[in-house]
Amino acid sequence: MLINCGQYSFDLATSLPLIQKSANLIYGDAPVSGVISDFNLSLNASSLLRRFVKPQVSFLCDQHSPFKPLPLNQGYALLEWGMNWCIAAHEYTRFLIHSAVLVKNDKAILCPASPGSGKSTLSAYLGLSGWYVYSDEMAIIDMDEQRVLPMFRPVCLKNESISLLQSWHPSATVTPVCRDTQKGDVAHVKVLSWSQYQQLRPAPIAGLVFPRYKVGSDLKIYQLDQLDSFNQLSHNAFNYNVLGKSAFKAAAQIVGNAKSFEVEYSKLTDLALFFDELVQD
Amino acid sequence: MSIAPKQILHYLAQPERCTLISLVQWQQLIWLFREAKLLSSLAAVLERRALLCSLPVYAQRHLQSALVYADRQAQQIRFECDELQTIFLNTDIKVLYLKGAAYTLADTENSRGRICNDIDVLVNKSQLAAAEALLKRNYWKSDKLSSHDERYYREWSHEIPPMVHILRGTVLDLHHNLYLPISGRSADMAKFFELVKTTNSGALVLNQEAMVLHSIIHLFMNEETQSAMRDLWDIHLLTAQYSTADFWNNLHNLALSTGFELEFRYCLTALKYYLGSALDPLTKNQCEQYFEDNWWVRKVLLPALLPDHPLVIGWQQRWAKRFMYFRGHFLKMPLHILLGHLTMKSFFGLRDAIFGKHQFSPKKN
Q1: B 43-82: CB under 8 A from A
Q2: Is residue B280 in some structural domain?
Q3: Whole-structure pTM value
Q4: Residues B5-44: pLDDT tens digits?
Q5: What's the number of domains chain B is made of?
Q6: Which residue numbers in chain A have pLDDT < 70?
Q7: What secondary structure letter does DSSP report for A73?
Q8: Which residues, 6+ apart, have CB-to-CB distance to A91 below 8 Å?
Q9: pLDDT value at position A90?
Q10: CB neighbours of residue A15 within 10 Å
Q11: Which residue of A has its CA nearest to B30?
């Protein structure tokens, strides 16, 4: 089958019905005819004995396997992570930052942060309440104008945020939960339909917000100077060390044009109000 | 359409044919060349001929990405070699750069866009221990190996276990010969140390003939064939760059005097088979003289050089590659040692096939 993510597409060979079903649920409305794919993936049961005892699934990008196999029920999560790996390991014409990208009024806010900062929950929450999620994990930025490109991808929810999201939006499209992965329980939620995705355009970056989730905390906002912001941004870039000088220039431009904040929060509603302020005309 | 296996290198040798292919063909070409470690080399030749910008955006993006990566790697090689030069500056240890690092430092025709996994250097065997100790005092360390692998390197091999730079993660292979001493066919290194030249940056590399012969030895005596097309492309560009009557004479004499004439003949046979019409007249003439035509060359040696990708190989070629794998091992070691080595390897291979590949890998963290 073919998975069309807008900016990138993947040829997927898998005999595992669970993966096919989830992939159809998330990407089923994207067109596939006439699409040329960037990467050739396969996900299949790993070894002979393993088909019967504790079955595992292996991820292959063409003839190579960059990861260790995972238990069979984690197959779909492995596919999504594998797709991220393909892009991060091969794309050197665009600046890639480990970051959520949220867009409103044609302005993008980047949330570059380490796992556990709550950026995925934030993306899912905003994505289902009036914002466009260009990505929950990877900002893809064109080098010349430093605009973020939209991606047709789901948001990856972890642990408690899965049931939280389902209570906010009972009708949201969510894949079956992959239990006990490296990141805990994982499910993917669809935040864009293909027809919505088609309307999206590359967006200039208006704000850089480095979020930190802390239980019970009031919303605390600290403005960052350009140097701090630059350090954190480049630290979160996937391909900074390969792009070298051009990434340095792009990061400097981004930091120069956007406002930067560090934010501590516990309530998503508070954070959403602050985000709304940032993209006001 | 599919890519004709025999034509793979023609896309590199005659890049203008890339301007005529469809998007679907581009997809196949990119997948194949990516696996064969030739995508950035293709990007380099297309750029040199100013053809890159006339290609479909899809192809441009993948080619450009591969080239950026390769250029960055070349920059890192130059940096690491500068660092190594400094480390060895006040010693009497001569460091000779080999293969990828040497191509980059000598700025040979094949260096642009060439991917390499590690930096290969060679020192005199009598200075090997001193060189290793000095590197260890300068942030290079060896990973812990299984006792079998440790013994393989220390007793039988022509290199010590790979060293890794603690801060930058660069991998360094420290050699004391061009080929395994245990094979009985290792090169007389005193002789090769006379066949060297100094690059503009002051690094020591093999001279033209010795550099090409080393590439040939590496390609035709190796058990791994995954990068064979890349290596054959290297040899093509190097010989095309150096091709004069003198060069070919010297290369042939060197191959004769070091006992690698058969590999030299194999190489010319492979050049003729995979590049044919793209060769310059002098090289073509050499190929005619030394062409090997027998069942083993046609059915095993030549097909085994193909990239391990279903777009260009089927079961026959896969068997050829498997055969070359055993042959490569057989050339390296006397039979009794080889049997022990392969028993260990197949034990681990079988274990992984049954229980899954990473079940027994040492746990990280």
Answers
A1: 58, 61-62, 64-66, 68-69, 72, 75
A2: yes
A3: 0.91
A4: 999 999 999 999 999 999 999 999 999 999 999 999 999 9
A5: 1
A6: 47-53
A7: G
A8: A140, A239, B65
A9: 96
A10: 10
A11: A38
pLDDT at position B364 over 50: no
Tens digits of residue pLDDT in A203-231: 999 999 999 888 899 999 999 999 999 99
Q: Give the A:B interface size as CB pairs under 8 Å.
A: 62
Provide the CATH number for the domain around residue B211: 3.30.460.40
- Looking at beta carbons, which residues of chain A come within 8 Å of B75? 244
In a domain, B227, yes or no: yes
Of B34, B64, B356, the CB nearest to A56: B356
Contact B308, B35 (CB under 8 A): yes
DSSP tag of B126: G
Helix spans in chain A (H) = 17-27, 75-90, 119-127, 160-168, 194-199, 226-235, 240-243, 245-257, 268-278
| The predicted structure's pLDDT at residue B183 | 72
The better pLDDT of the pair A281, B75 is held by B75
Cβ separation A62–B69 shorter than 8 A: no
Residue B30 distance to chain A (closest CA, Å): 8
Angle, helices B245-258/B261-275, rounded to nearest 10 degrees? 140
Residue B341 belongs to some domain of the structure: yes
> A72 with A181: CB under 8 angstroms?
no
Cα B244 versus chain centre, distance: 24
Which residues in chain A have their CB less than 8 angstroms from residue B64's CB?
A: 92-93
- Residue of B38, B60, B67, B68 best to disrupt the A interface, most CBs of A under 10 A: B68
- Domain coverage including residue B302: 5-355
Q: Does residue B68 lie in a domain region?
A: yes
Bin A27: left if φ > 0, else alpha if -120 < ψ < 50, else beta. alpha
